[in-house]
Amino acid sequence: MRDTRAELLAQAEILVRGRGYSGFSYGDLAEAVSIRKASIHHHFRTKTDLALALVAAYDARYDVALAGIMAAQPDAASRIEAYGRLYLTGVEDGLGCLCAVLAIEMDTLPDVLRADLARFFDKHIAWLERVLTEGCADGSLRPGLDPAATARMVVATLEGALLLERLLAGSAGFRSTLAALSDGLRPPRIA
Amino acid sequence: MRDTRAELLAQAEILVRGRGYSGFSYGDLAEAVSIRKASIHHHFRTKTDLALALVAAYDARYDVALAGIMAAQPDAASRIEAYGRLYLTGVEDGLGCLCAVLAIEMDTLPDVLRADLARFFDKHIAWLERVLTEGCADGSLRPGLDPAATARMVVATLEGALLLERLLAGSAGFRSTLAALSDGLRPPRIA
DNA sequence: TTGTGGCTACCATCTAGTAGGTAGATTTTT
DNA sequence: AAAAATCTACCTACTAGATGGTAGCCACAA
Prior knowledge:
Chain A is mainly α. The first copy, chain A, has ten helices and no strands. Chain A has one domain (about 50-185): Tetracycline Repressor, domain 2 (Orthogonal Bundle).
């Protein structure tokens, strides 16, 4: 038995991340999943409902990933790098960040959706702020670094790099940015 | 005598930067400029023609701005900061970067347009790389920093910050990211 | 027998784009 | 200088196709 709802979410995510929210239609999605356009409405009454479900699923996946990083990585510096690598699959698959794509079209989005997007990013920033604060304390990151500001900067850099390198140099470009980012966070070498 | 073509470009830019490329229509634009939809086709035969003109005008404005920074700012560190401040008006006006918006919808864009976008970003990266190389030499930036990688990172950070802070904390958030970015580029304090 | 998950057929509205016309300015020809 | 031709910038009216969404029907499983 196939899980149509899950397939719809998976294909819709690919479509949105590649073409933007207004850039994909129920028609496209129907074709991708091989059911009729009207049948999609059975699973997601409106396009907004679909978008909300998309963000919720995406957000949940990130929750798992962030918890995994906390468990697998010992220190702040490697946690930040592991966080950065999360974005890498997007570049490799030629897909932007779902929430970045939606954020771009902000002005056309319903308020609920916009609020969910803000929550998504705020959560990442808060997580990074905690990691960065630890990193300053344990010496794996440059002391005197502002955790709140740097957390915002890290998310911005990775979102920006995904956006850019999908268009430009692909994963090589992304890795290069990731290296430059880590460089700026490391404690200064006493050479 | 009013310059309808210029008004079309100005209003179209606002629409695209706020709602995405597929998110705005000739109908919207016609209303914004108070002429009939069909009349727009007189100035821009197709939507792609309009997008190309939009990018060309945007790119030209940045050329002027970059030249201005070279003339007005004495050292690399202040040039980078001035470059960062260029993005600030976007945050303040609640408008994303035109080329970032278009890049998000990459998969739907005609090849010509995609090539123009790549050229836009490559130009910025090349400019920054030059400035960064100078900065390493004259000591206003952290020595040993990789100019090519850092240039990509700077553009990524600013594009990402514009995207994020338009949704989140506005210009305060953006300034905070800008400060964290500069911090990472500065030579280490010998406290 | 009730709910699930599809379907066909439809709807109003919007989409980019076309056809063809008009009023006025500019340019060319006489 | 007058007349003719052309160009500019807009218009109304239209097209074909896409858009999100609705109504109602059917098969099947619990």
